[in-house]
């Protein structure tokens, strides 16, 4: 498709490397055209070769029972872990995973509104064993999270609201968290088995008017 770039070619791990290395640990493998974390004890976080500033990212994931993973963006090599710099979009089995941060949430920072039908935060995920679709739109003027076509929430990186939430979270003590406006996309591989496919990205040209103030506030 015009403007889109496949981040995973379905055949090998070309274009990826483990965080802060130029190698890939054996816990990540290609199986049946999917990028699979088969052994979370020997996988680690997997990063794109290229860095991205503003973009739309789409992918499908299939998580194991009680599984937990994540997608991080604007990851740099400054932190001890990928999540010490890049905000994380949580992926998990909402039914059985131990972590109370649910799928599609911006970890420890933003969650969707309460669904009046259930009295719990909105949950558009499909059961374990099925493929779920994630769409992330990351722009200086507004970031948006979608799970299976349903919008969960939006936020503005570096805004007063965003910075206040960071300060209250565990990330408030991490000096480089969400400070960069460009970085790697990373897939979390140390919490459970998970598969990814149809991983693609489309760069977004930031509006200059929005960029001038908002991006500066992140530095």
How would you describe this structure to a colleague?
The protein has 219 residues and is mainly beta. The chain has a single domain, classed as Exo-inulinase, domain 1 (Jelly Rolls), CATH 2.60.120.560. The protein has two helices and 15 strands. Strands 1, 3, 4, 6, 11, 12, 13 and 15 form an eight-stranded antiparallel β-sheet that branches. It has a five-stranded antiparallel β-sheet with strand order 2-5-14-7-8, with no helix packed on it. A two-stranded antiparallel sheet has the order 9-10. The radius of gyration is 16 Å and the shape is globular. It starts with a strand and ends in a 5-residue tail after the last helix. The C terminus is likely disordered.
The number of distinct structural domains comes to: 1
The helix-strand sequence is: EEEEEEEEEEEEEHEEH
Q: What is the CA-CA span between the terminal residues?
A: 34 Å
Shape category: globular
Largest sheet: 8 strands, antiparallel
Q: Tell me what the CATH architecture is.
A: Sandwich
Structural class: mainly beta
Counting H and I runs of at least 4 residues, what is the number of helices? 2
Structure summary, number of beta strands: 15
CATH-derived topology: Jelly Rolls
Low-confidence spans? 208-219
The averaged pLDDT comes out at: 94
Helix content: under 10%
CATH superfamily: Exo-inulinase, domain 1
Radius of gyration: 16 Å
What portion of the residues fall into strands of 2 or more residues? 25-35%
Q: CATH first level: which class?
A: Mainly Beta
């Amino acid at each position: 498709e015009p403007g889109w770039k496949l981040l995973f070619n379905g055949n090998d791990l070309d274009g990826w490397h483990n965080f802060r290395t130029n190698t890939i640990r054996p816990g990540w493998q290609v199986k049946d055209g999917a990028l699979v974390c088969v052994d979370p004890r020997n996988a680690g976080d997997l990063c794109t070769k290229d860095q991205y500033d503003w973009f739309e990212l789409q992918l499908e994931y299939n998580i194991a029972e009680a599984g937990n993973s994540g997608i991080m963006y604007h990851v740099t090599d400054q932190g001890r872990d990928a999540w010490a710099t890049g905000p994380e979009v949580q992926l998990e089995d909402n039914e059985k995973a131990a972590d109370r941060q649910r799928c599609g949430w911006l970890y420890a920072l933003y969650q969707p509104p309460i669904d009046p039908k259930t009295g719990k935060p909105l949950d558009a995920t499909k059961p374990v064993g099925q493929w779920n679709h994630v769409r992330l739109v990351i722009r200086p003027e507004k970031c948006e999270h979608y799970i299976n076509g349903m919008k969960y929430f939006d936020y503005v990186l570096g805004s007063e609201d965003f910075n206040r939430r960071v300060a209250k979270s565990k990330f408030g003590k991490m000096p480089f968290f969400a400070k960069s406006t460009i970085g790697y996309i990373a897939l979390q591989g140390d919490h459970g088995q998970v598969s990814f496919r149809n991983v693609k990205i489309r760069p977004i040209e930031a509006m200059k008017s929005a960029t001038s103030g908002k991006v500066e506030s992140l530095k």
